[in-house]
Structures are given as C-alpha cells and as structure tokens.
Design a protein that fits this description.
Elements lengths: L1 H19 L10 H4 L3 H15 L5 H5 L4 H18 L1
Helix pairs in contact: 1-3, 1-5
Length: about 80
Amino acid sequence: MADEVDAVGSGALEVIADAMGVADVRPEQSMSDLHPDSATLLQVVGALQERFDITFDVVDVFSAEVVGDLVRLVREAVATRSRAS
C-alpha cells in the first residue's frame, strides 16, 4: 500500500509539472509561485483525472495553496476509487 501511495504521489507531481509546462514541482511549492491561470489549472485537472481514472471537485483545485494540496486530492480520490471497487 505504501508503495502505491508513493507511486501516486510521484505520478501526480509528474502530471502536474507536465501540465503546467515546468520541469518539476515539489509538494511544498506554492501554487502562486507557479502563476497558473484558470486554463492551466483545468489542464492539470484533466490530466490528473485521465492519468489516475479519478474525479474530484474542480473547486478544490482552485483553492490549493501548495502543490501538495493537489497531490493530496489525487491520493484521496485514488483511495476512494480503490475502496469502491
């Protein structure tokens, strides 16, 4: 289970960086430092949902203060999906 969580976290960071067009991101990195616009955040949402076959509330993405908040959303959605199956 821990390996899956680590894989989800690492994968989410990769997807977020790619969707934002940056080389990499760190969980503690402030979202405001990345200067994402609404369109970019929607791309991040779409990429995360596609990669992990999950859904989550887009409003939560817009309220994320640090990249780790997005990773947490992905981990929670993956865990919820796993419990449901």
